[in-house]
């Protein structure tokens, strides 16, 4: 086995893990503060990606600059969803939030299918296919930019909430570690088994540490 391929898989896992950690921190914050499980998190991420695509296609706005537009819009959309569908939940909040957010996810996915069709699309920018050589390894520019942006946003979120008891370091460590293991599995074993190993690890972690890697078990009031 080529050691260079393994190292390259580790680097890729770390860089992509930063983005996964950013999404995981959102789930951690929502559950830790609002006591709800947001099944629609993935659909909302995809919605943001389609908004970036629409801005790039129709107004030729750079994908990263477009975040200055998509982030406030997604924030307002999140507030609207919380006000209209989550806030009215007065009892069994955690259980009913699963059903409500699952319905929201289905609606978002259906709307995106009608508007953009089900044909796969790809975000385009000069840095999507560009890369540079560092120590014998080619690093994709978009991975570097995404990782840096994720670290900046996570750092800002940590500074904002550092006096609270939210389990962000657990989300960060778990996301990066699991992405590294997934990429190494694809290189060492088989790409077919990479996703399987990822979800096996996810299930094991949830069974062993349902409260989070660094969280503490405690009763929650519904």
Set down the secondary structure blueprint:
Elements lengths: L2 H32 L6 H19 L7 H20 L6 H24 L14 E4 L2 E4 H21 L6 H21 L2 H18 L14
Antiparallel strand pairs: 1-2
Describe what you observe in this structure.
The chain is mainly alpha-helical and 222 residues long. The chain has 2 domains: 120 residues, no CATH class; 91 residues. The protein is built from 7 helices and 2 strands. A hairpin with a 2-residue loop joins strand 1 and strand 2. Helix 1 runs antiparallel to helix 6 and helix 2 runs antiparallel to helix 3. The termini are far apart.
Question: What about the largest sheet?
Answer: 2 strands, antiparallel
**Radius of gyration computed on alpha carbons:** 19 Å
How do the helices and strands follow one another from N- to C-terminus?
A: HHHHEEHHH
Number of helices: 7
Shape: globular
Short description:
This protein is mainly alpha-helical and 222 residues long. It has helices spanning 3-34, 41-59, 67-86, 93-116, 141-161, 168-188, 191-208; strands at 131-134, 137-140. Helix content is 70%, strand content 4%.
């Amino acid at each position: 086995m080529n050691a260079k391929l393994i190292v390259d898989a580790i680097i890729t896992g770390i860089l992509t893990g930063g983005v996964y950690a950013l999404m995981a921190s959102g789930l951690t914050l929502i559950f830790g503060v609002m006591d709800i499980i947001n099944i629609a998190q993935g659909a909302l991420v995809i919605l943001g990606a389609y908004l970036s695509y629409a801005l790039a296609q129709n107004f030729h706005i750079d994908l990263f600059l477009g975040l200055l537009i998509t982030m406030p819009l997604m924030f307002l959309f999140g507030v609207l969803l919380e006000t209209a569908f989550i806030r009215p939940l007065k009892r069994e909040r955690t259980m009913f939030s699963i059903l409500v957010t699952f319905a929201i996810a289905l609606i978002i996915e259906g709307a995106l299918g009608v508007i953009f069709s089900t044909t796969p699309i790809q975000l385009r920018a000069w840095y999507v296919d560009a890369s540079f050589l560092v120590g014998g390894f080619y690093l994709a520019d978009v991975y570097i930019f995404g990782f840096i942006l994720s670290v900046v946003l996570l750092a800002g979120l940590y500074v904002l909430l550092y006096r609270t008891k939210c389990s962000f370091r657990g989300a960060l460590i778990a996301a990066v570690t699991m992405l590294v293991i997934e990429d190494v599995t694809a290189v060492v074993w088989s790409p077919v088994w990479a996703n399987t190993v990822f979800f096996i690890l996810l299930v094991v972690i949830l069974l062993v540490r349902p409260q989070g890697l660094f969280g503490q078990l405690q009763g929650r009031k519904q």
